[in-house]
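REQUEST ID: PR-0412
SUBMITTED BY: lab tech R.K.
PRIORITY: routine
TASK: structure prediction, single protein chain
INPUT:
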Amino acid sequence: MKRIRAVATAFALLVCSLLAFGQSPAHAESYARISGGGSTWSQNAIDQWRKTVNQYGMTVNYASTGSSIGRQQYADGAVDFAVSEIPYGTTEFGVREPPPKRGYAYMPIVAGGTAFMYNLKIGGKRVTNLRLSGSSIAKIFTGKITRWNDQQIKDDNPSLTLPNRKIIPVVRSEGSGTTAQFTLWMSKQQSGLWNDYCKRVGKPTPCSLTSNFPVLPGSGFIAQEGSQGVSGYTQQNYAEGAITYVEYSYAIAAHFPVVKVLNAAGYYTEPTAASVAVALLQAQINQNKDSVNYLTQILDKVYTDPDRRTYPLSSYSYMILPTSLDSPMTEDKGRTLGAFGYYFLCQGQAQAEPLGFSPLPKNLVQAGFDQLKKVPGVDVQNIKLDNCHNPTFSTDGSNTLAKTAPYPQSCDKQGPVQCLTGTAGTPDTVNTGKSGSAGGGAKATGGSGTGTANGGATTAGAGTAGATTAGATTAGATATGGTGTTAGTTGQAIDPDTGLPAADAGGTSGGEDITASTVGVGAESFWGMRTWLMGLSALMLLAVVLLPPTLARRFSRTGRRDGRA
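STATUS: complete
OUTPUT:
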């Protein structure tokens, strides 16, 4: 019986260890719990890193409140660290943000591209190869272009018969580093349009960056909270015609297309890890180690980079590190924060590209290591950079990811021909039959998802589980490549461009604007799997208790029968 119990116990413990998500007791040291807040732009990377280090005994809490609130929380002593795309001291509409009284330093954590995720169909088929110039983007987000079949958008997209559908710009409702990066780009590259818009919303000019996107009443703009909010809204069936600005990672996760943006070389590109790496070769990094703004970025040359592989809206995200023991910081917390920082600066960068980001180059990783030394209580580590497995590293100091970045296809060049290749891992757009379409060539996506043009492109599960509006639950928007109908339109003529009844070809649904609604982005699949695993674990542990005595009684009865025989 003892042998049976030992075998059963060992088996159950083996199963339980497999259910522990790969935790390694050898590395489970004692770490103080730390908390941070801020950026949603880099949230997907931070969440992955937090999950990974949890197996080493580190608990890193992070609230994706937006960069503005994160910086304020740090200044107020509400969090141990913050994450932001812009530094303290910026001036927005004539008001300068004061720096915190706590000691602080900036450390780059990951690179990426601010993408333009959109929801557009032609004849019921999802468009995945949309192209826009900087002027077209700025006019959309300043209300100058309001319909998808505007001539300027047509000029960007010679292969698409664009629908006469209203454009729904989706912006952030709270202070956001993503908004700041986008409006900074507009102020530098489309200043005339941006200044005119600021005047119309009653803001002083000249207009620079702002963390809070000003919305003109009655403009039809939709404001949503957080990157999850804007991306979740945009991908819903009821939001067809929507476009938003969000970090590329969110489009990758949702399997939703992003705009190919026209760069200074005359090519339309998407923010893959390689395109971002190329662009940020032109970033001007503050190298003054005596400056509080050491390592912060100036992106003017990124916007105008003449390399045809570059993505113009590329940038870095930063962690705001504590350099003093002001509350709530302690040396024990500093030890945890240091270990977390060493992890994501080294091993964590290998996870950047699959998540839709771009890894830091070697010089910024090394600079980050130096910044960590300023954190009180940190255990300084002498990490050999070659062991970090960062795809940007090389023996000669050059950025390998940028050096080997693929060149765009000839059909991505501005002109009368347009590639059919889908973006962000989505299937290729089906040829509409209009001249100027071109297919073929490798697809560079920087994330999961595949697809080829076969006459009926299909997007699978593009949507968010658990998103509920007015009592109707959306389980995922799927384009089947068919003609497409709307509820209650059976037997009616369908407009081939909009997929709507011919009487409503304008896409206005009776002239009513889509109104803002709360969108919940669920994670039922993860928790469902976890519940299943926990149930299996409970069954195995129950077997430890019940199986040995049951087998013992069975063997005892067998032994007695054998004895009587």
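NOTES: The longest strand covers residues 104-118.
REVIEWED BY: pending
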